[in-house]
Amino acid sequence: MVKTSKKDQLLKLCTAAMLAALICVGTIVIVIPTPFGGNINLGDCFILAGAWILGPIYGAAAGAVGSAIADLFSGYALYAPATFIIKGLIGLLAALIANGIAAKAPKLKSLGYVIGALAGEAVMILGYFVFEATVAGYGITGAAANIPYNAVQGVCGMVFGVALIHIAHKTKLLTKL
């Protein structure tokens, strides 16, 4: 395990805080409503890219906090605790899987991003289905009706997240972090 300095930890913490703010704004600004009160937004693409940049712990924390705050600001307080867990899991899984694949086969780094994003977004779809069917009270039928919308949310997050991380690599943006 590589030991990081306090300066590096502080930089990661500050970057995670800024990323949480970006995730919150990305979730709130572009909103396409779904029938049961959810929405499709760009928050997931920032969760994924942020997790790949910051790693599983700081990336998951940024995704969890930024997304839950967006729910609170948007009037979806009921969803905030579930969102905190679900969106945190997206970042955690995406980073763990992508980092694991890149460590074993560096040439497959891009494939790691795609597989990590698929796993994270699958957890998002399942997580919101379970939450909506139980806690939110939609029942299985009502929660199932939101699966296509959550799937579109996941696909948008994956496509834009993978594109964003590739742009960050190509522009050498990540060398500054």
List keywords for this structure.
two-stranded antiparallel ribbon; 2 strands; mainly alpha; 177 residues; Arp2/3 complex 21 kDa subunit ARPC3; 7 helices; 2% strand
Can you walk through the features of this model?
- This protein is an all-alpha fold and 177 residues long.
- It has one domain (9-176): Arp2/3 complex 21 kDa subunit ARPC3 (Orthogonal Bundle), CATH 1.10.1760.20.
- Helices cover 76% and strands 2% of the residues.
- Strands 1-2 form a two-stranded antiparallel sheet.
- The two termini are 19 Å apart.
- The mean pLDDT is 93.
Question: Could you give a quick summary of the protein structure above?
Answer:
The chain is 76% helix and 2% strand.
Outline the secondary-structure elements.
Elements: H1 6-29, E1 32-33, E2 39-40, H2 43-54, H3 56-73, H4 80-104, H5 109-133, H6 139-145, H7 147-170
Antiparallel strand pairs: 1-2
Number of alpha- plus pi-helical segments: 7
For this structure, the CATH topology is Arp2/3 complex 21 kDa subunit ARPC3
Shape: globular
Strand content: under 5%
CATH class: Mainly Alpha
The CATH architecture assignment turns out to be Orthogonal Bundle
Instruction: Spell out the helices and strands N to C.
Output: HEEHHHHHH
Structural class: mainly alpha
